[in-house]
């Protein structure tokens, strides 16, 4: 650990192996790394196979080295961890850094003993940070659950697209679109790059508010890479707050929940607002033209609710009937404010099983039945971009 802290590259390599293999002392070593108090700018780079991610990472590394920063690269290949092809390719392309101890490149060979790929990648990042790496870049391919989780551990996620991959943007998984903080339209020297850029911008334009910047790059020559790095640094400067806002925006804009819960279409059911007094809070909304359609008290939640329909959705004002209730504690701790968003899905039990199965942190231990026979559970903000999310099923029949 002492040598890791000093930035000794061989110790860093060994420490990662120990952690990856779950060898003796791995847990202690990892804990010591996490406690080192050091952190890096974490950049996730993902995108379809062959888009030029590794070539682009190589160029980004050059930029950071030119700034005098030390860099760690983690190349993750979830589909074929042992096949060698892509990993070997990465090694060869990045061989240009041989002899520069300021660049340490690691291909992840395992999915990790327990927590899966994302957990294993997080472990490797933690070791690199403890070793004082100032920038850590994680490359993954595809848009599976693992990539989305890896994106969550990055401060900034770059999605690399390139022309010539079929009907690229349209067919891209929503998962990949929503995790993008920056789009790199790579292979800008090839025909079709402009169309890719137009499509990305069009897709993003569907929603309102902040949109991810799009930067054209030619990874093979380095063109546009300085601009890409500047875009990444600008977003990183927004910190955790900015990141959280981008995540929520992405989830809303690209409807990942809809994708995951099926054809019938998840939709926003309501937005829950914790207030001290419904009587005091409703006036503003009524002045806007909203009307309270229903008021009721949900005894077992110790909360009084007022529903105000708003377009396809509604606002739900929540007032605690007891101080020691969920809403009571929320208002005491944070003051009045946005408490949760509720998303309606066609099959709440399936959603519960699925989320529990993929390691999402839930804030309910089962699906509960509320007023009107609605069945619901809560997803912890930690797994939902900092927002408490209620998942509601269709009303019980009969
Ligand atoms: N013309 C052109 N070719 C590029 C560019 N960037 C990468 N390539 C080429 O595209 C091919 C794939 O590049 P990689 O960097 O391996 O792509 P990748 O996305 O990392 O691929 P996987 O890791 O296998 O998913 C290589 O032959 C690169 O030389 C570019 O900007 N222009
Ligand atoms: Mg690659």
Descriptors:
398 residues; Rossmann fold; 2,3-Dihydroxybiphenyl 1,2-Dioxygenase, domain 1; 2 domains; 7-stranded parallel sheet; 15 strands; binds guanosine-5'-triphosphate
Brief rundown of the structure:
By secondary structure, the chain is an alpha/beta fold. It has two domains: 37-252, Rossmann fold (3-Layer(aba) Sandwich); 255-395, 2,3-Dihydroxybiphenyl 1,2-Dioxygenase, domain 1.
Structural description of this entry:
The protein is an alpha/beta fold and 398 residues long. It folds into 2 domains: 216 residues, P-loop containing nucleotide triphosphate hydrolases (Rossmann fold, 3-Layer(aba) Sandwich), CATH 3.40.50.300; 141 residues, 2,3-Dihydroxybiphenyl 1,2-Dioxygenase, domain 1 (Roll), CATH 3.10.180.10. The chain has 16 helices and 15 strands. The strands form 2 sheets. Strands 9-10-11-8-12-15-14-13 form an 8-stranded mixed sheet. It has a 7-stranded parallel sheet with strand order 3-2-4-1-5-6-7, sandwiched between helices. Helix 2 packs across helix 3, helix 2 packs antiparallel against helix 6 and helix 6 packs parallel to helix 7. The longest helix is centred in the middle third of the chain and has 16 residues. Guanosine-5'-triphosphate binds next to helix 4 and helix 5.
**CATH homologous superfamily grouping of the largest domain:** P-loop containing nucleotide triphosphate hydrolases
Q: How large a portion of the residues is in β-strands, by DSSP E? A: 15-25%
The ligands bound in this entry are: guanosine-5'-triphosphate, magnesium ion
Number of helices: 16
Helix-strand category:
alpha/beta
Under CATH, the topology of the largest domain can be stated as Rossmann fold
Second rung of CATH, namely the architecture of the largest domain: 3-Layer(aba) Sandwich
Helix content bin: 25-40%
| Oligomerization status of the protein chains | single chain
CATH class of the largest domain: Alpha Beta
